[in-house]
Amino acid sequence: MLTDTEIAVSVHYLVHLDDEALGDFASCEGLGVEVVLETREEGGNNGFVWQFPTRLKYPNIKLSRPVAKETADKILNWVVAAASGTTRGTGHIKAMTAAGETVAVYDLHDVVPVRWTGPSFTPDQPKVLTETLEIAHHGFVKTGSEY
């Protein structure tokens, strides 16, 4: 178990959508939040500009991995179902070490797929076939899940 003073090195990411496991991913980019500021200039005050927080903005998250069995079974089915108007779910991204210990869990509200990109098939340059799943969400939540 990781202690507070150990460095947390994450090797892979387990992704769940509600109770459905979408599998392991090798990289995860875009976890974050930005506070959008509105600026106001006050007449007669030339020393600074007022900045007021207005809303939170969440970037899309990009998950990448080598192509796996879950691609056709779960990911593509989820993307196609979302296009036909299914409800948005709660997503969970669990950062794991090589030893299988949990580094962190991020619970996401109103997850919807944005884009899936499959592998490029080029016979002249054999390499690992990878896929990328891009998702959007409406913020972080704490569900107390044990994924």
UniProtKB/TrEMBL annotation:
Pfam families: Phage_T4_gp19 (PF06841). NCBIfam families: conserved hypothetical phage tail region protein (TIGR02241). Transmembrane segments: none annotated. InterPro entries: CHP02241 (IPR011747), Phage_T4_Gp19 (IPR010667). This is Phage tail-like protein.
